[in-house]
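pasting input
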Amino acid sequence: MFIYLPLLSFLVSLALAFFVLRRWTQRRRPHLLLWGLGALFYGIGSFTEFYYGVFGWQPLVFRLWYLCGAILVAAWLGQGTAYLLLKRKTAHVLMALLLAASVYAAWRVFAAPLDPTQMLADELSGHALPSSVRLLTPFFNLYGTVLLVGGAVYSAWIFWRKRVLLHRTIGNVLIAFGALMPAFGGAFSRAGIPYALYAGEFIGIVLIFLGFWRATHPSAA
Amino acid sequence: MTRSSRHYPAFYEKGIPVLLGFIVLLALALLVLAVLVVLGLFPS
């Protein structure tokens, strides 16, 4: 049953990407484009988890999973927050660095030898990759989580202090919680709890979706 | 920054700071975990 959790995560992340990118086409704000791309990376990551659970090992699927799902998703979502909250010039510099780092990570992931015997039974794990490649992941995730969670907490705090825009306060709290869930899922997964990562990803994308929806729909407040 | 004279509903007045504090604590725990992973003290 747990192998179908990533399919649900995939569907929710596609819905999130659709709503965010539709908003981007209307407003042309760069943070919406980055969040939309981040949601698409989330979708690719969760779909590859589902694919692996149903159809088994496939090197390209694994590499896509690790690149999009484990390395890029949090960082690109966080980069969206950088465009929302930081000065445009600062965000551009960070974007250039992230782009260069992402290209480097893609090269490392696609050039690395794989050892599928290190994989758990029907759950993807990074152990098929050399540790030198896996060591990249915390840096991307730290960057993304600090920006995404920090930005959401900061925004919620500002709205709360001013007692304005309750829907955005609630939305940002949900987004902050949601952004932490995959990281905790990953930590529990490393500690040996089966499917913790998939559960964390599912709860995370649902909370982020609800948060985005709440923050952009004041009439529901 | 001065506080507005407006108020949120009571649940959100008290609940939001508690939730935000909880989130910050969780994030700090993750930060420590990430450092442990980089140092090789927790499985990556």
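fyi The radius of gyration of chain B is 17 Å.
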